[in-house]
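User: I'm writing a tutorial on reading structure tokens. Could you give me a worked example: one chain, its sequence, then its tokens, then a sentence or two explaining what the tokens reveal?
Assistant: Sure. Here is the example chain.
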Amino acid sequence: ALARALVNYPSALLLDEPLGALDLKLRQTMQLELKRIQREVGITFVFVTHDQEEALTMSDRIAVMNAGRVEQIGTPEEIYHQPATVFVAGFIGVANLIPAAVVAVTGDLATVDAAGHRFGVPVTDESIRPSDSAVVMVRPERLHISIDRPTGDTAAVEATVEALVFQGPVLRASLRTDAGTELVAHIGPEDALPMLRPGDRLWASWDLDAACLLRSGDTAAETSPVS
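And here are its predicted structure tokens:
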């Protein structure tokens, strides 16, 4: 089917979830094959998918749509690390979305109250003002877990371990802050931690540049990580 579509050298080719019926390993192989073919023929591929990881893998640019409206267009790196809205942050990958109140804005750094703690967050939206409601977004792989409160130029919240799931390369830890916000942390084998158990108390921290501050959107979407 792909060969028949390419034989006339169209200016663009629409691929509507072409790999959806394949198992994981075959789908990953075909993703690389489609990228190779696209580079060779030099034709624009418009690739439609509901698989966020597939979108990041396949795309040079991604358009994220919500209810028929384009929320953001950008490179995979921009969409993942610098989402424009709460919806984009939660739709692409796993995102910790922490409700926050903006206390002050100084230059490109905002001070916020979130999950019972006060810390700084980089701000790129110039319209955010003190007293605004906002959401702090941190990806699970950027969270650092420690038993003792971290020191230095980091943001940190105290939380309780609710569940632990071994996922091969990482241990997925489901946490809940004292304010009730759910967090997800991906703990790698290089993290020197004692054996964790549900009910353990710990600190989840992140470097300041690992977070971004977004305008508050749908309240229901901001109380738990979206995956």
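What the tokens reveal: Residues 136 and 192 are 26 Å apart (CA to CA). The longest strand covers residues 154-166.
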